[in-house]
Amino acid sequence: MTQTTKVSFETPYDYHAILQLVIDKGKEMFHPAYDIDDIDRAPILRLMTYFLQDENLADHLGIDLYKGLIINGPVGCGKTAIMRIMRSLLSPS
Question: Is residue 68 assigned to a domain?
Fold first, then answer.
C-alpha cells in the first residue's frame, strides 16, 4: 500500500509522475516486471531530490545538495540499476 504525505512547502516537480517515469524506464531498460517496492520509495525520493537539486524538498528532508552521495546495499539490491535509470533520465547540461 502506497502512503501519501501532505507537505507544507512548494516544489516545482511532480514526484509521483517522476517516480512513474523511473519505473517505466526500469521496465524498458531491465525487465517488464521492474517496480519499486513501497519500502524503497523514500530512499528513491531522496535520490530524485538530489538529482533534481530541489532546494525546497532537500531542506525539508535534511539533504545537503552540496555534498556527494553514497549508495550502499548488498550485491544485487539495485544500486547500479537505479543509478543507470537516473542517468538515462537526465538531459545533458
Answer: yes
Give the cell for residue 28.
524498458
**Are the CB atoms for 58 and 49 separated by under 8 Å?**
yes
CB 58 within 8 A of CB 48: no
Asked, for residue 24, whether it belongs to a domain, the answer is yes
Give domain status of residue 58, yes or no: yes
**pLDDT at position 3 over 70:** no
If one counts the domains in the chain, the total is 1
The C-alpha atoms of residue 7 and residue 20 are separated, in whole angstroms, by 20
Convert the pLDDT of each residue in 24-66 to its tens digit. 999 999 999 999 999 999 999 999 999 999 999 999 999 999 9
User: Residue 2 falls within a domain, yes or no?
Assistant: no
